[in-house]
Sequence to fold (275 residues):
Amino acid sequence: MHLLLDLGNSRCKYLLAAYLPVVMTQGSEERELGSWDNKSFDQGYWEAQLKRFQSETLSKVLVSSVAGKDRKEWLEAICQQVLGLTPLFAESTETYVSEKLGQLRNSYDNPVALGVDRWLAMVAAFEQSETEFVVIDAGTAITTDWVSKDGQHQGGHIVAGGRMLQQSLLGGTGGIAWSASHDGELKGDSFGINTSAAVTLGAEAMIKGYCSQLLKDIAAQAETTSVRLFVTGGDGDFITTCLKEAMTDRGLEYSISYQPHLVLEGLSYWFSLNN
Fold:
């Protein structure tokens, strides 16, 4: 069995699978999916989470992590202690070679500097798409990556996610935080009639504006009209709704799908074909 971990800023998703690669759109009884809150990386809590896999016959622990060197070393030590295995960490590379579709090519001058979660999400989308595509990962930050039909990464965006937008206001402005602390519940529809609602709805409006501008830019620069949009991340449902509304407003008919485990799927492909 293989244990795959997608370690994000706030949660860790896992995939337990007998075989790699794993195609999430195909059902299988030989895999298990789940997640846990990072709990500020409490040592005892993480040990308890990993102990659930001690009864499995694990051959490898494979990890996608946006964390720094110290956190990776911390996770490595826990996996060695609890599971008796040293985890293998994926890295962004200059190219990813698909058995079916050719090469996915990284646009960064220093390929490893591209966030590995972004790269792995592109790998999974690349394996599913024969046309140009865009991956939108809506987590703590919202990342967007555009890939041409021939597999060339065209670049992307990194913007603050909804909660980060709200936290930056509440954490950086004493008056707003003080006012919000007196609100019992959110009040308002498009416009807030208390501070908490004004912050929440304002953040949502900014994300909707970003989605609209994103689609405007794609429509102006895309090679074809058959662009595929892949959405993943914890706020993926909301982003998918925003993108669909923006497509309607702009008269676009792009294919769009929300795939919450896109990074884990990409991780399974990356290790099965490039290691």
